[in-house]
User: Fold Orotidine 5'-phosphate decarboxylase from Aidingimonas halophila.
Amino acid sequence: MSPSSPLIIALDYPSLHAALCMADQLDPNRCRVKVGKELFTRSGPAVLEALHGRGFEVFLDLKFHDIPNTVAGAVQAAAEQGVWMVNLHASGGRRMMEAARERLERERLSTYLIAVTVLTSMDESELGAIGIDESPAAHVERLARLTQESGLHGVVCSAREASRLKSLCGDDFLKVTPGIRPASVAHGDQRRVETPRDAMASGSSYLVVGRPVTQAEDPMAALAAIEAELETR
Ligand SMILES: O=C(O)c1cc(=O)[nH]c(=O)n1[C@@H]1O[C@H](COP(=O)(O)O)[C@@H](O)[C@H]1O
Assistant:
């Protein structure tokens, strides 16, 4: 059964063993998990098998960005391994996104396909330095529109943009929001952050939480505090 919780815990660990130690403390009925570049590069598909075997729905976060044919093949490979969700970069463009979506349709694979808009670690000055002269919010909007027109299920954005995207793209278009920081937790490399409660209030569909839980002195207490914060919304 799919968990009703919006929480996705980012298993950003340097080994399969470390990731599974955390997964074994988590309840697949209460959260989903995310496998990212570091863990997948080290452990490969074995980590997906291990997490699926424990009953978790897995978001494979490899943020594909390449020519359409290559990305379509990579998305198919991810979906064939049974992941719940996979992502690519919206900045790869419409043809790339359409090719990936069409491949999933052709193969009758039901994995959620979403696109990263503007990384939550980026602010306006960093966007300017790569030649994008609009605010993060405006650029997120532009890429979210393109993503929706390309037929994907939703986007990764910061929770700060979620409410605008909700009115622009509708309730069913997924807003997956990393950069979640409970009030007392350091922002680290994240720039466009929101607390768990405010992220849900602004229309996020799913909250991606990594270090506030995984690097906490007591990860399970940190997770329980976030769950409690969400319950009092
Ligand atoms: O696609 C993602 O998951 C992602 C997109 C984005 O814009 N920002 C972002 O932080 N992420 C991922 O979300 C997780 C956030 O982790 P913490 O900052 O530790 O909570 C990391 O695994 C990032 O790779």
Q: What stands out?
A: The chain has eleven helices and eight strands. The first strand starts at residue 7 and ends at 10. The pocket of orotidine-5'-monophosphate is lined by residues 10, 12, 36, 61, 63, 87, 116, 119-120, 156, 178-179, 190, 208-212 (CB under 6 Å).
